[in-house]
Structures are given as C-alpha cells and as structure tokens.
Amino acid sequence: MKTLKFAGRYVLRHWWQYLLGILALYLVDQVNVYVPEYTGNIIDGLTEQTLTLEGALNIVWMILGMGAIIAVGRFCWRFFIFGAARSIEKEIRQDMYGHLSTLSMRYFNQHKTGDLMAHFTNDLMAVRQLLGMTVITAFDATVMMILVLTQMITTVDPRLTGVSIIPLLVIAVGDVFYGRMMHKRFREKQAAFSTLTDQVQETISGIRVIKAFVQERKELYAFAKTTEATKEKNLNVVRLQALMMPLMDIIIGCSSLLTLLYGGYLAIHGEITVGQFVAFNSYIGMLVWPMMAVGECITSISQGTASLGRIFGIFKEQPDIVDSAVTDHSITALSGEVRMNRLTFAYPGQPDVPVLRDISVTIRPGETLAVIGRTGAGKTTIPSLLTRLYDTPEPGMITIGGRDVREIPLSVLREGIACVPQDNFLFSDTLQNNIAFGSADKSLESVIHAAELACIHDNIAAFPEQYQTVVGERGVTLSGGQKQRSSIARALMKDAPILILDDALSAVDTDTERNILDNLRTIRGNDRITIIIAHRISTIQDADHIMVLDDGDMVEYGTHDELIANAGLYKSLFDKQQLEKQLREEHPDQDAEGGAAHV
After folding, report:
1. Which end of the chain, C or N, has fewer beta carbons within 10 A?
2. Does 553 score more than 80 pLDDT?
3. Which contacts qualify for 63-70: CB closer than 8 Å, 24 or more apart?
C-alpha cells in the first residue's frame, strides 16, 4: 500500500494528462464498438435488399468518419499518457539521485554500485511501463470488454453472449495465480541483473589489477557463471509468459468455437439474422484483445510493482547523519580551535572493536597537527569524524570553536573543511573542472595558482591539452603522484578554515613534498588549521604538534624534537625510515618512488 501511495504522488502531478489520455482512449473504444454494428447493418440490408446505394454510402462515410476519430484519439492517448509516464520516470530518477546523495556512508558500504545502477535502468523502465502502457492496456481492456459485452447483449442475443464468455471466465481465475508467480520471478530476475551489473562495473574499474595478475581467464569464467544465472532468471520469466499466452489462445479459441456452433444454430433457425451473426463474430474478435491484454497487464503490473518496491526501498532509507534539534543554524562559518575530548569511536556494526580510544588534543588557529602511526592505527577515522561522515557516540567529543560538531549545520561544517582523502578520486572531466570542483571561483587563473601551490602545474602544462585534458575514470590516466597533487590543488582552491591531508603526499618524491609543505606554510595564515596524516616522518616533522597513534591509542604527543628525545614509537619509526632512506641513496636504481608520469 505504501508503494502505491508513493507512485500515486507522482501520478497526481500529471492527473490532467492521464484524464485527457483516458478520455481520448474512451472515445476510441466507444467509436470502435459501433463499427461491427454498422457492418452488420450493411450485410442485412444487402441480403434483404432493403438498403439503397445512398444508404450504403452514408454508412460507409460514417465508418470512415469513425476511422478518422479513432486515428486522432489514438494519437491523443499516446501523447498524453506516454508523455506523463516519461515525465514521471524522469522525476523519480531525479528524486532518487537526490535522495541517494543525502544518505550516509553506512548505506553505500552495504549496497553495491551495480545494484543501485539496476534501480536507475531496468527498475525505472518497468515502472514507466506500469504507469504508461499498462494504464492504457488495463483501462482499454476493461472499457472495451464492458462496451463489447453490452453491444453483444443488446444488439445480438444474451444467450449467445452467455455461452461465448463461459471459457473466458477461466482466464480471470488463472490470472490470480499467474500474477503471484510473475511477481516473484521478476524480482529474482532484477536481483540477477543487479549482480551482473555490479560484476561488470567492478571488472572494468579493476581491469589494471586483473591484467597485472593475469586473471583475465578466471574473471571470464566468473562472468560466464553470472551471465548463466542471469539467463536462467530471465528464462523463468519468459517460460511463464510462454505458458500463459498459448493457454489464453486455446481458451479464446474455445469461445470462438462455441460462438460458431451456437450462433450458427440460432442463425439457421432465424432467431438472429446473418448480419447479427457476422457482427457477433466481429465482437468476439474484439474481445480477443481485452482477454490477451489481461495477461499482459498481469505481467506488467507484477513487474512494475516489484520494481516500484525496489525503488521505494531506497526512498525508505534515511540518512544517519543529519541536522538535528541541537543544530544552531545561526552558525554560518567555522572559526576557532578544534578540540578532541576523550574521543572514542567504533564503526557501526563493530561496537566492541573501537578504532580510537580516549583521544584528547587541541589544535588552535594557525597551528598544524600531524598524525602518524602504523597501518590500521585509526588515523583516517579522524577526518571522517571531523566531517561527520560518521558521528561520535557522545556529544562534546569533537568541538570546533567551542561548539559540538552536531550543533554546526552539516553544510557549514563540510564547506569549512577541505579534505584530501587517501583514494584521491577524480572525475571523468577536464583537469580544470576537477581542480575547481569544490570552489565557487572556477577561473583558469585561480586553478593555475592552486596547481602551482600543489606543484602539479608543470606536469599539466606539458600535456597536449593542458588544463583541458580529460582524465579517465577515477583519474586512471594520471600517475599516483599526479592524482594526489591534483587533489591537493582542489583542496587549496577551496581555501577552507580547516585543511586535512590524509596521507596525501605518499606518492610524491621528497623534493616535491618539501615544496608543497613550504607552500602550505606560506598560504595557511594564523587563522587556518591544518591536519596532516602521514606515514613518512619527513612529511610531518615540522608540524606544531605530532600525535602518534598505535592501535587506536594516542601513545605519544609533542614536537618532532620532543618525540625523538622520548625514544618511543615515533623514534623507532624515524630510525627505520632513516635507514630506508640511506639504503635508497646507496642503491638509487632501486628507488621506485616518484611523482612524475605521463597521461
């Protein structure tokens, strides 16, 4: 019921189109049912020699006029109802896209891309069919059946009508079971299509890894298995349809046979005229479409409601992270210090495995906080909590300017933080548009300035199309270092009060790293906060404060010199990296690190 109410909201927006389309459809059906009657009148008139040439021509002209009305009416119902269905499809797609953008990370972690893509393609197509052709078919079949049966009873013979429709009643009973089976099988078919779409998407995205590990044949076998399962689910639907249609043909054939036998008997005995008998057979022919349409309607309704349910499932999902009653909408910008107060956090679904425990630190405007630690220490969780991709379990664990992050409107919070994540996502667009993505100022001069600060300008200037170079999907045509520096340039374009670099310099050489850090110190004034998360100590050693994480705990905190003198984990990491640096200098041919590459 909720699913139908959901669809009803969209249908009501286009009620006038449906009304005009249904009126046109009713007019077509109303005119159609009189054609056999006039045809029968001509036959009776010619048989009994009571019809003059002028009378016959008048009837012919009336039939031609009906044909013209039918043609115009068919255009109108197609124009209005199909147009409304297309508009509703666009509106649902747009609303679904907008709703997805509001959902929290939990939803995207639990749902695959291929499944979501299936909602935007196959499911929406089935819904459009439900709200377009199925509406026409259902209304047309119902009206036509009522009008035809009425004509059969009033203009021919009620007894003959009753005999002819007995086999057709079997269809109504069978349709109930057919609809239930079709609904179930179509949902399975759509789920199989989602799996197939997701596998294709993952294979194309990971094609470099597949080729590097020579796994093409293995992936081909896996894809063949998926396509076979998809084929079987589709065949289950087709088999059911293939069974239904011949059965309906048989039933309709039985109705026609009874009409010929009993109708012929009545005509021979003079209870109906030959013209009435011919007209009645025409009416039986006109009933074939409504009977066939019943099966098509059941199929389309079963498929459409199944897809509508899948789409409605997305709209039922609500974001976990939203502005709430405590949000202060008078806050329009971020300012002041960032404070973490006994910050403890575990990801949803893993409450007994905290990734951060009892972290307390304060970062004042103009300061840089560096975070370092082994892999899995919990470093990347900090920017996720600052930007509220996830919420802290208790209020007050993270404050900005003395206000809990929950009190700051989400749009203000995220607008005030520029983050360079680990995965460095770039869109399939020009480098200029990628760098200017989060900035209101998209001028080429500003983009070039940000690129110079991120030490990527020289690389871009060497490309044939320079800043108009279109990068591949996820920036696949750029090297790791180029993607990182392009992402840094994008963050610098935003000029936000808080800048977070999450292992954003790992793929650049040490000289480039030093130049970028020097530029950051120059442009990040006394009112800006910078948080640098890194594995390399060379990246963070000049930071005002360094926090060392180990398995979610802050084990050390201080400046570079203080931590070296402390001779703890930080000193151990520093000594190992110094040794690695010494080995690279002694064997430069084995140094694979670098940031330059070619598009």
Report:
1. N
2. yes
3. 63/35, 63/38, 63/39, 66/31, 66/32, 66/34, 66/35, 69/27, 69/28, 69/31, 70/28, 70/31, 70/32
* pLDDT digits 0-9 by tens, 363-380: 998 888 989 888 778 888
Q: How far apart are CA 177 and CA 247, in angstroms?
A: 14
For 10, the enclosing helix (H) or strand (E) is helix 2-13
**Cα–Cα distance measured from residue 409 to residue 413, given in angstroms and rounded to the nearest whole number:** 6
Q: Residue 309 in 3-state DSSP? A: helix
- pLDDT of 50 strictly over 70: no
Q: 342 φ, ψ to 5°?
A: 50, 45
CA-CA distance, 400 to 377, in Å (whole number)? Answer: 24
* Residues in the chain, total: 599
Helix-strand-coil percent breakdown of the chain, rounded to 5?
65, 10, 25
The answer to whether the beta carbons of residues 409 and 327 sit under 8 Å apart is yes
Q: If phi over 0 gives left and psi between -120 and 50 gives alpha, with beta otherwise, what is residue 111?
A: beta
CA distances from 442 to 110, 378, 412, 450, 477 (A): 35, 35, 20, 11, 23
Strands (E) located in 350-455? 356-363, 368-373, 398-400, 403-404, 417-420
Q: Is the pTM value of this prediction over 0.85?
A: no
Please list the residues that pair with 556 across neighbouring strands.
Answer: 548
Query: Whole-angstrom Cα distance, residue 556 to residue 560?
Result: 11
Q: What percent of the chain has pLDDT over 90?
A: 1
DSSP letters along 376-397, please? TSSTTHHHHHHTTSS--SSTTS
CA gap 490, 447 in Å, rounded: 8
What mean pLDDT comes out for the span 288-315? Answer: 77
| Averaged pLDDT score across all residues of the chain | 80
Average pLDDT over residues 208-225: 78
Q: Are 490 and 435 in contact (CB under 8 A)?
A: yes
Distance CA 33, CA 150 (A): 10
Residue 28, C-beta contacts closer than 8 angstroms, at least 6 positions apart: 69, 70, 73, 74, 77
Find the radius of gyration of the CA atoms of the chain: 36
How far apart CA 288 and CA 390 sit, in angstroms, is: 59
Helices 274-316 and 83-102 pack at an angle, to 10 degrees, of 10
What is the Cα–Cα distance from 581 to 72, expressed in whole angstroms?
A: 82
> How far is the CA of 447 from the CAs of 332, 432, 436, 443, in angstroms?
26, 6, 6, 6
pLDDT at residue 415 is higher than 80: yes
Mean pLDDT of 167-184: 70
DSSP codes, 85-152: HHHHHHHHHHHHHHHHHHS-HHHHHHS-HHHHHHIIIIIHHHHHHHHTHHHHHHHHHHHHHHHHHHHI
pLDDT grade, residue 598 (50/70/90)?
very low
Q: How confident is the model at residue 52 (pLDDT cuts 50, 70, 90)?
A: low
Q: Over range 193-203, report the average pLDDT.
A: 79
pLDDT(327) > 80? yes
The 10s digit of each residue's pLDDT in 224-266 is: 888 888 888 888 888 887 777 777 777 777 777 777 777 777 7
Q: Which of 134, 237, 244, 122 is nearest to 182 (CA)?
A: 237
Of 204, 203, 235, 205, give the one whose Cα is nearest residue 222: 203
Of 442, 537, 125, 151, the closest CA to residue 304 belongs to 125
Phi, psi of 312 (to 5 degrees): -60, -30
**Is the pLDDT reported for residue 213 higher than 50?**
yes
